[in-house]
Amino acid sequence: xxxxxxxxxxxxxxxxxxxxxxxxxxxxxxxxxxxxxxxxxxxxxxxxxxxxxxxxxxxxxxxxxxxxxxxx
Length: 72
Hints:
Layout: H1 21-24, H2 31-46, E1 50-56, E2 62-68
Antiparallel strand pairs: 1-2
């Protein structure tokens, strides 16, 4: 990139600390299940109400789902 010095440190709150498909090493065909399960666990752990799952489906297509956590 032609830089001679560091550009700074990105804020940690912008990182996906729950990992993506490549970092977790799961088969690509299991993406939907992994995304839904991860969102469900994050909603429970972080006390959220809504989660959004979105994935590409090749050829300019895509899928999305909104998940709502039930109150405990």
